[in-house]
Amino acid sequence: MATYKIGYFVGSLSSRSINRVLSKALISVAPEELEFTEIPIKDLPLYSSDYDADFPPAGRALKDAIAASDGILFVSPEYNRSIPGALKNAIDWGSRPWGTNSFARKPTGIIGTSPGSIGTAVMQSSMRSVLSFLDAPQLNAPEAYVKFDPASYNEDGSVRDEGTASLLRHYMEEYSAFVQRVLAANAPGHIGDEHPDGAKLTR
Length: 203
Fold this sequence. Notes:
It is a single chain. The longest helix has 24 residues, at about 160-185. The chain has helices at about 20-30, 55-65, 85-95, 120-135, 160-185, 200; strands spanning about 5-10, 35-40, 70-75, 110-115, 145. By secondary structure, it is an alpha/beta fold. Helix 1 packs across helix 5 and helix 2 (about 55-65) crosses helix 3.
């Protein structure tokens, strides 16, 4: 059986992040053909085009990790009805310099959990717009907006509640199938504008 390398982002920097709990739960129920590596974001400086000529080590490591991944999974909270700043900053690093967009043609999944009943739905909508611009194919269905219940998870991230486990297992099975479909359809080609205009270079 082929193995697919999945790089995953946790969109919260909190040491007590419930989305980190969710990421562990997703890994625990994922199909065996998926192999996971977290792509860290906490050491990235704020992106500026001043770095484009010479990326710092954290920026180079992030782009290398994305390049080494067959697919990308975003597990993130929703801050102020949108993408957390740290995660958006990481996406900006991964997409630059212009013409070296590391996310292009990488099959992606977006999922998140929240104490509230909307379960990161608005963040996911914002992410879809960003990933569309970055030419990153997205798993559109099933959508998963998870209301967090701490009683559903064990300390190691495994899932105690069978209803939750079933939901997350179905999501990861569909994500695995999506990754395989996208990779089978992909062909070498253009992943960015080779001739950016001056405004794009400095924005």
